[in-house]
Write a structure and sequence with these properties.
By secondary structure, the protein is an all-alpha fold. 65% of the residues lie in helices and 0% in strands. The chain has five helices and no strands.
């Protein structure tokens, strides 16, 4: 799954890993959920590193963030698990419960 620490991954790699975890049928449910949460946070850090600094975040243009997330949406458009990937990526903001993970 995901290694602990601050190992930096590309957004494409993160999305691929999310898809892989979603499709995995051998890993226990709770372990999959924790991996998905870590991957979602890693993606947010890549897309919006300003989240680490509240002062910078206040000054960032909302259109810039929207454009960054639009690029993410383009990257996941070819995945069969697109809906689930979006759910995972929205988790840090929504606090969803991953009810659909088996």
């Amino acid at each position: 799954m995901l290694t602990k620490g601050k190992t930096k991954m590309s957004i494409e790699h993160i999305i691929h890993q999310i898809d892989k975890v979603i499709r995995d049928t051998n890993t226990p449910r709770q372990e999959k959920i924790e991996s998905l949460k870590q991957l979602a946070i890693a993606c947010w850090r890549e897309v919006a590193p300003e989240l680490e600094n509240a002062e910078i975040l206040r000054n960032i243009d909302a259109d810039k963030l929207t454009a960054r997330w639009a690029k993410i949406n383009d990257k996941i458009s070819n995945y069969e698990t697109k809906g689930q990937i979006l759910y995972v990526l929205e988790w840090p903001a929504s606090g969803g419960n991953f009810y659909w993970i088996k």
